[in-house]
Amino acid sequence: MKCRQCQVDKLSEEFPSAPLSKACKHPPYHCLRCTLEKLEGKEATSADSKTLTCPDCQESVSHELIVELRSFLQFVCPAETVIDDSKHDEVDATAAGGVFYVNMLDGKFCEIKYDPNMQTLHLKKLLEQQLGVQADKQRLVFKSCPLQSFADSGRRKTCVSDYGIKAGDQLYLMQLIYAIPEGSDLQHIVMKLQWNWVEKQDYLDGSALVFSEKNYIGVIDYQNRDSAKFTDGVSALTHSGDVMTSQLQLGQHEINVFLDKMPDTVTDVFFTLAAWNAPTMGSFKNQAVELAEKSKPNERLGDKVIFDTVASSQALVMSRLYRLGGGWDIVSIGGISSGNAKNYSPLIQTISKCYT
Q: Alpha-carbon dihedral of residues 84, 89, 91, 92, nearest 10 degrees?
């Protein structure tokens, strides 16, 4: 069933299990997360119980329903974290001890001894030693907030306590592939993909999943070849369609990204790969995928994907293009996943970890 708000096809378990009030004469059409977002938004503006209404029919609902839905969401979608930033506890700067965790979506992780006074620069040096990612190539995220090494216009080195990090918390680490500064001439990126099938003709799909902050807003793939319907009427992303050469058992396509046309509402583009009919990506031969600048097609933006490491997976979240200040960063993800162009929900779930 597709949620009316986020327009994502979801399982029935991801919707409220019953109408929000006895007066509602319809099944829930908004998923749990979207229902909570709407109700919590209204609750924040007024304590009057009559101001809380069903997002579908506007019948009144109780404030207690928010607590029930939040608990239910945590039960059925444990990866969905409901955060109330206004209620975060203050970090005690003297309370060292315990560990926190740094994860990468390719499965690598490490434990770091917790010290609220640890500088972000020192944390990056530790991660370079333990996870092998150069400090200047690291992009660390905690609860959707990127960790910067300096604050106050570069006058002060940041510490983990500046970001509310506590023992037991989880951070996510991504590796920088390419930085596109504000004003750069690089405005047209192309993702090229090709593969050979073995017996019957089959497809290896490259897709671009587009987000506005945490919210999935659309996809570019073999079916949806133009982003205009969700990028303010502008063709900011396009797909070539599959080009199949039967004699060579060869498939190819490319996705074009026009940064100078991208509306401000678009903050992230995730490039994914997935098998169509075959059970895994290892069912194909000679797979090759690369990101490049359109005007310099022989100069790749980052390393070539090594398919041996993901051969047993149905899908891969390959990389992420996201806004940083007035420019863009491209970071490597390498997160294996289930899902494909028939059902993007598992891929969106994998991507959601980047915002945790």
A: 180
- To 5 degrees, how large is the angle CA 58–CA 7–CA 256? 150
Instruction: Judge whether 231 and 237 are in contact, CB under 8 Å.
Output: yes
Tens digit of each residue's pLDDT (9 = 90 or more) over 152-190: 766 789 999 999 999 999 999 998 888 898 888 899 999
In whole angstroms, what is the distance from residue 202 CA to residue 225 CA?
19
Instruction: Give pairs for 238-246: CB < 8 Å, separation 24+.
Output: 239/208, 242/203, 244/201, 246/201
CB 78 within 8 Å of CB 92: no
Q: Which residues pair with 175 in a beta bridge?
A: 138, 332
- 275: exposed, middle or buried (Cβ count in 10 Å: 0-12, 13-18, 19+): buried
Q: Report the alpha-carbon distance of residue 133 to residue 279 in Å, rounded.
A: 31
Residue 131 and residue 140 in contact, taking contact as beta carbons nearer than 8 Å: no
**Residue 297 DSSP symbol:** E
Structure tokens at 322: 């996201």
